[in-house]
User: What shape does this take?
Amino acid sequence: MQSDLTVASVTKKFDGFTAVENVSFEVQDGKFFSILGPSGCGKTTLLRMIAGFYEPTSGDIKIRGKSMLGLEPNKRPVNLIFQDLALFPMMDVKENIAFGLKRRGEKKSSVKKKVADILERVGLPGYGDHKINQLSGGQKQRVAIARCLVLQPSVLLLDEPLGALDLKLREHMKVELKELQSQVGTTFVYITHDQSEAMVMSDHVAVMNNGRFEQIDTPQNLYHQPASSFVAQFVGENNKFVGRFETIAGGGAKVVLDDGRGLNVPADVVFSQGERIELFTRPEAMIINPDGSQNQINMLDVRVKSILFDGGNSRLLVDGGPSAEELIVALPQNNLYDDIEPGDKIKVGWHVAGSVCFKDTGTKTYDEL
Assistant: This one.
């Protein structure tokens, strides 16, 4: 399949500060690709280099095989949608969408037809005469996208376009954007700090940290098979334990916490004897009061600190003991644990294979900053 966008070993420096360092990736034709990372990680700088507002210090950016180096933004086959959308309030919907076509010098008859066609494609037929202030937040989003798509870009760049919306509309627009992208078939490159947006909408996601990509993968693989400690903590929630690696006589291994408690680690985990490692397990992998007769399960005595009610996403916050941070345990929606209250002492456990381990670097993660 053809790659609409190729970024090859791109680095960007500002007066000695490296904002983007040796980043490479490809986005295939018609795919939804997201760049996910915390504020200040370099994702907006990367997007602006693709758009042509910044020139890379080194490396190359190609769109459909053609290098974009030295090419001005208005001559690149890309369009960029900002968080504030930048719609013209003094123009109606059709005038906003037609703006770029008129600047190209297209004939009135062609402009009229293209505007009508794109309004149909984004689900806004008959809205051409509406003023911008008459539209809902979601409708404004679609007008901004229509204004870009009508110019038939090879790649549409989106810079946190849902950031200014309220939570309910943002949840709705995640689904709408994904469906719209599938319908129009244009390649989307989307940047966000919201992992839910990236996971729901994307075919592939790049997790960015300190100017570098930590991992590029499908949302499913990022969640279940994180490649680094940062990814494990940034994508979804995870419970973290830190201790030293020790092999067990007769086979197997464990991480020994600082208070002496031992937790078994997955069979494929190999580190040096005594090396400090981090072990992660997801809240939904944790079992409340597990059957102690089950094999290959870790078990801890904990105290319930609070109940975090959130409907189907309700969880327990528990004290994991002197060598563990507060732990989050998913609360099954089967009414079996309705009698649990803050202060209760319970057991939690998880299957060993449900954990992932990484070398402890001693650096603070995003959640700890």
Remarks:
- The chain has a mean pLDDT of 89.
- The chain has eight helices and 20 strands.
- The domain at 3-230 is CATH 3.40.50.300 (Rossmann fold).
